[in-house]
Amino acid sequence: MTTAERSVLTSEHLEAYRRQGYVAIEGAVPPAWLARLLAASEEFVEESRSLTASTPELDLEPDHSASTPRLRRLSSPVDHHPTFAEFALRGPAADIARDLLGSPARYHHSKLNYKWSSGGEAVAWHQDIQFWPHSDFSPLTIGVYLTDVDATMGPMGILPGSHRGPLYRLYDADGRWTGQIAEADLDELDLGAVDYLEGPAGMITVHNCCAVHGSAPNESERVRPLLLQTYSAHTSYPLLGAGVNGATGPASGSLVGDPPFGEPTITIEGRDIPTAPNFSQGGYTTIFDVQQG
User: Fold this and answer.
1) 274: exposed, middle or buried (C-beta count within 10 Å: 0-12, 13-18, 19+)?
2) Is 131 domain-assigned?
3) Which of 134, 250, 277, 293 is most buried, judged by most C-beta within 10 A?
4) pLDDT score of 143
5) Residue 213 structural domain
């Protein structure tokens, strides 16, 4: 993709992403879009007031109440509100994904982490690819700060260059999945070099699936909603039967951008596999119907 064909990112942004494993860009989301996303996010806060326990879509903090809602996460916002779907599949996030990955890119999943005021929960150091392994390391996540974020609000922190380093076990000493890097491995990392991405509303963060990242609790009096959507190159595929792949929502696997040229192909161990079309959303019957036309 040439510079003229890119919608949002410059050559400098792309070089920073490749070198560091992440990039942050202020002003990437237009004000009108930002207002729509924030309004949609507030709808789910209001919906959560009637809940006393988490649902598959709305994850509540333990001290959530109707009078003081503390919504921890909206899972798969793309599947629950047309504004989020438009933003991720046809809007600015899709444009940025294509700039980074080429067109088309493959959408994988989305989430909205609210990180509530006065102690909204931390996210321990981890890498993403262990949660949803793919056939390559192209997957990346595009985040959008829906409000201004300063150092007291638990901004995302990313360790520069860690996307080129080891992929860590996210298990404890007893073999229990914890979703975080063990203390012994953290001792090998220079966490003093972590870049904490503060910035204004409308700033995007992009991080590679192998980058070590996390965030502290929100100690401010303001909520810190971060909208996240994950994409891969269209030639990259989630590995079913590993991690949360297969449980990432009905829009998962959607291509954003121009249709790819030619037939779909996966390369494994140097051999190209000319695959069938994507029938995961339906449309396939049997080999007999296909072969007999």
Assistant:
1) exposed
2) yes
3) 134
4) 98
5) 3-261
Note the pLDDT tens digit of each residue in 99-124.
Answer: 999 989 999 999 999 998 877 788 99
Residue 20 has pLDDT above 90, yes or no: yes
Confidence band for 60, pLDDT divided at 50, 70 and 90: very high
Q: Please, which residues bridge with residue 237 across strands?
A: none
220 touches 147 (CB < 8 A): no
| The pLDDT of residue 2 | 47
CB 72 within 8 A of CB 113: yes
List beta partners, residue 268: 271
Instruction: Quote the tokens at residue 23.
Output: 């990039």
Q: Residue 261: what pLDDT?
A: 64
CATH number at residue 247: 2.60.120.620
Q: Which two tokens stand for residue 53?
A: 């326990």
| 106 touches 1 (CB < 8 A) | no
In a domain, 279, yes or no: no
Per-residue pLDDT reduced to its tens digit, 229-281: 999 999 899 998 888 887 788 898 888 987 766 677 888 888 988 888 777 77
- State yes or no: cis peptide before 69, omega within 30 of 0: no
Residue 179 lies in a domain: yes
d(CA 205, CA 190): 21
Q: How does strand 140-145 pair with strand 204-208? A: antiparallel
Q: Residue 278 burial (CB < 10 Å; 0-12/13-18/19+)?
A: middle
Measured distance CA(213)–CA(183) in Å, rounded: 14
* pLDDT tens digits along 61-85: 998 999 999 999 999 999 999 999 9
Structurally, the chain folds into a number of domains equal to 1
Task: Classify the C-alpha dihedral 255-258-28-22 as positive or negative.
Answer: positive
Q: Tell me whether residue 290 is in a domain.
A: no
Taking the CA atoms of residue 80, residue 231, residue 30 and residue 22 in that order, the dihedral angle to the nearest 10 degrees is 130
Interatomic CA distance for residues 144 and 254, integer angstroms: 20
